[in-house]
Specification:
This protein is an alpha+beta fold and 64 residues long. The chain is built from 2 helices and 2 strands, in the order H-E-E-H. The longest helix has 16 residues.
């Protein structure tokens, strides 16, 4: 049985914390653009918590 990944409120905050940590790091400059990309086997479920995902790559994209 294969299901899409569900981003809940907690995981949305985890992703936001990772972005904030990168923004605060010395590796980030104003010329960088942050793109949130999810790589999953079956994709993600679109919901109110997945709105910040810029792109998704699924398993068939890697082997097509």
């Amino acid at each position: 049985m294969q299901h899409e990944f569900v981003i809940d409120k907690h995981y949305e905050s985890v992703l936001a914390n990772k972005i904030e940590a990168f923004l605060a790091s010395r590796q980030h400059t104003k010329t960088h653009s942050i793109q949130l990309v999810m790589i999953t086997t079956n994709g993600i479920v679109p919901n109110e918590h997945s709105k910040d995902i810029n792109q998704q790559v699924i398993l068939v994209d890697l082997f097509a």
